[in-house]
Amino acid sequence: IEVKSSDIDEYLRVAIDVAKEAGKVICSALEVEKRIETKESLADLVTETDQQVEKMIISTFHQKFPTHCFIGEESVSSGEKCTLTNAPTWIIDPIDGTTNFVHRFQFSCISIGLLINKRTEVAVVFNPNLDHMYTAKRGHGAYCNNTKLKVSDVNNLQNALILAEFGSSRDPEKMTKRVETMHRIVNKSHGIRSLGSAAMAMCLVASGRGEAYYEYGIHCWDVAAGDLIVREAGGVVLDPSGSDMDMMARRVICACNKDIADQVISLLQTVEFERDSEEVVSGK
Ligand code: IPD
Ligand code: CA
Ligand code: CA
Ligand code: CA
After folding, report:
1. Which domains are seen in the chain, by residue range?
2. How does 215-248 read in b/e, with b if 16+ C-beta sit within 10 Å?
3. pLDDT-based confidence at residue 164 (cuts at 50, 70, 90)
4. Ligand 1 touching residue 198 (CB < 6 A)
5. What is the dihedral of CA 188, 189, 191, 195, to 10 degrees?
6. For a substitution probing ligand 1, which of 41, 168, 216 has the most ligand atoms within 8 Å of its CB?
7. Would you say residue 229 has pLDDT above 80?
8. N or C: which end of the chain has fewer CB within 10 A?
9. Which of ligand 1's atoms lies nearest the C-alpha of 165?
């Protein structure tokens, strides 16, 4: 599928507009008492706002671009298989960082990526709490508001700050491995931060505020936009095995450069890999 650059500009413009609208909904729901449900664990939350925002985003795109496909976290039912084709596909996380949203902790965002030929062409991550609008077009750099982003040039783990997440599963075996991995990394770096939003973590790495982020168990909607934002800021996005990132494989590492990625990966591989893998989730 070929795309014209004028079309790409239009996709980005619409994505920014819809993210701003979604941001207003999220901000006005922030201080109001929320109806919260749990999904697969006590730490896997969803609110009416997640659902409302996703509906709003999908219906806007559907109206403007009726031939496009969609994968949205809250439209996918558990167990449904999620397949990504070459067709233009909007991958949407209406609120990345729902737990943060529930607690009014300011790291939650709307994450929107448009993939064509299975590659992200347009990315928007908007944190309405801080009014940070991250955008990227493939080949044209990444921005936060109007500032061009550039990753950090630290190339030694000893001098690096690493972003890592516990994820929302509370499976005891996975938790043990995750904590062990973090222990190894914290001993060899400046420290670890757990923000509660995969998309925000990737945007911070893209902004040179932290050197790497990795996570097992993520979904495509957590990383579809962040993937392009990190790459356009000069960073690398890989599978934790060191090979290319597979958007549907449910694991990721991104870093400011390959040296840092390799040093983190060597510590991930000292325990057996978590084989959470494959997007068996749901999708359309
Ligand atoms: C979650 C956040 C969190 C990550 C989880 C995700 P959600 O997304 O990105 O940082 O650790 O794996 O599920 O559920 O808040 O959209
Ligand atoms: Ca969720
Ligand atoms: Ca998410
Ligand atoms: Ca979400």
Report:
1. 5-148 (3.30.540.10), 157-268 (3.40.190.80)
2. bbbbbbbbbbbbbbbbbbbbbbbbebeeeebbbb
3. very high
4. yes
5. -110
6. 168
7. yes
8. N
9. 11
Structure confidence at residue 272 (pLDDT): 44
Q: Long-range contact list for 131-134, CB < 8 A, 24+ apart?
A: 132/203, 133/16, 133/19, 133/20, 134/203, 134/206, 134/225, 134/229
Name the token pair of 264. 């983190």
Ligand nearest to the CA of 22: 4
* 66-114: pLDDT as tens digits: 999 999 999 987 767 788 999 999 999 999 999 999 999 999 999 999 9
In the predicted model, what is the mean pLDDT of the chain?
93
ipTM confidence score: 0.98
Residues with CB under 5 A from ligand 4 (ion): 73, 93, 95
Rg of the Cα trace of the chain? 18
Q: Establish whether residue 168 lines the binding site of ligand 1, counting it when its CB lies within 6 angstroms of any ligand atom.
A: yes
CA angle (15 as vertex; 24, 254 as ends), nearest 5 = 100
Mean pLDDT, residues 167-181 = 91
176 C-alpha to ligand 4 centroid (Å): 24
Respond yes or no: is residue 222 known to be catalytic: yes
Interatomic CA distance for residues 56 and 258, integer angstroms: 38
50 within ligand 1 shell (Cβ under 6 A): no
Identify the H or E element spanning 121: strand 119-127
Does the reported pTM lie above 0.90? yes
Whether 44 is catalytic is no
Nearest C-alpha to atom 16 of ligand 1 is from which residue? 96
Ion ligand 3: residues, Cβ under 5 Å = 93, 96, 222
